[in-house]
# Entry
Amino acid sequence: MQLFSKRKMWHKRPLKDSYDVVIIGAGVHGLSTAYYLAKHGITNVALLDRGYLGGGGSGRTTAILRSNYLTPQGTPFFSESLGIYETLSQELGFNLLFNQMGRLDLGHTESAVFGLRMRTEFNRALGVDSTLVGPEQIKKLAPAIDLRAGKDLPILAAMHHPPSGVIRHDAVVWGLARAVDEGGAEIHTRTEVLGINRSGDQVTGVRTNLGDVRAGVVVNATAGWCSTVAAMVDVLLPITTHPLQAFVTEPLKPFLDVSVSSANLHVYVYQTDRGEVVIGGGVDPYPTYSQGSTLPAAEELAKHALGLFPCLRDVNILRQWTGLCDMTPDYSPIMGEVPGVRGFLVTCGWGTWGFKAAPVAGKRMAELIATGKMPEQIAPFSITRFAEGRLVNERAAAPAGAIH
Amino acid sequence: MSFLLRCPNCGERSVADFRFGGETNVRPAPDASHAQWVDYYYFRKNVSGPRQEWWYHKFGCRRWFLAVRDSRTNEVPQTYWPEDRTGRGGDGASQG
Ligand SMILES: Cc1cc2nc3c(=O)[nH]c(=O)nc-3n(C[C@H](O)[C@H](O)[C@H](O)COP(=O)(O)OP(=O)(O)OC[C@H]3O[C@@H](n4cnc5c(N)ncnc54)[C@H](O)[C@@H]3O)c2cc1C
Ligand SMILES: [Zn+2]
# Structure
């Protein structure tokens, strides 16, 4: 296995004027879809990205993987994805540095603990390894934690989810890109889709800054920008684009080997293999396409992280950054065809939770494209669920609590 | 990004003083179809560029007003009371 190599990860090829499938967006979802398409023998595929490879949410993620969701639709889906990630390094021959450190979801109020207990029971019923643990066990798993959480919101219990972990997000993007490239599909960066061509209700290709490209299947995998691409075929999505901020501290000696999340405090904390402490939270409360970071967000995150880990008091912040999140009303993704536009598929609504889902989502999107049939595992995430009143509400399982 | 908004009543304040109230869209008639209500309730234009939005001055005069904001830069060229909305620029301004 190799992490760094002089061998080229992918090759720049001339843009052809026709492909079977064009995927807009070369983030982890576009790449994963292309990777699995090759397993169905579909390799006349172009991934088009207007930026650099993995420059969207996939390059800004905090890359926590887990499957402790709430719903009977979401839980098996995320669970399958985690299973694929567990062996993806071997499959790609590329070290993704997956550290299955486990995770604690803290409950600071009776109602939060009730919610965690419910999730734990639902998880166990679906074969997901989660248990409810008390303060003693929490202290054992994370000795640096202040159980009084700054005296404001004492920690009453936590949901412990051992298979959760953190993966090296760049390595996932690079590893998939190399496999996609070797499999025969093409990656075109600095290639912006400006419009989508149609004949009647059938998609016929895309217009780019490098000219027109024909394709009968066009996949919208542009996350935070997915509404702008959907608008090219006059489609509205139930999505708003919100910024999500995070920061990382200078490296410290190892002191924390589990990731810790608090929905009540809107914060999560983990220590990387390099010793840096990554701190993130919930999305900003207003939508924007600006990826600028703000001082108020850093202050909020720092305040809440210090409530949990007072030992971080004198530690310096190294970097702060922001990515765009395509938020849905029910905190679940939107996948599959869009009624009224044949050949236009979406894999979006990945919000603040999408990195962990990329393997299974790509696998099922590829299956949909290859067979023309909506796989049952992702049928609940179809865009038609809003009109049908079948929302898949994962709000309670959102990483750092819902907005507001 | 942090930015400033001009409340038509109180003047320029930090965005942290305000609550975002969504892009403006047209409320269907009570007897509109199910599909129209679904669109109104869930589906958004989510425009990248200038758009008309509702904002509420939470830590101030507690009044709702409209703003044209460029969602790429968070520049807010115009704010005004709902009754003054006609003829303003920004996405959806004429239908909002
Ligand atoms: C700070 C932060 C922390 C996060 N933490 C987690 C986490 O811990 N766990 C988790 O599971 N998820 C997390 N997420 C969410 C996760 O990162 C995203 O859901 C995921 O990376 C989205 O991947 P994607 O491939 O769908 O989109 P992206 O990686 O955003 O890729 C979309 C691409 O589309 C391109 N594009 C846009 N418009 C066009 C156009 N017109 N033409 C061509 N290309 C275009 C962009 O350049 C971009 O590269 C986090 C996100 C952020 C921002
Ligand atoms: Zn005011």
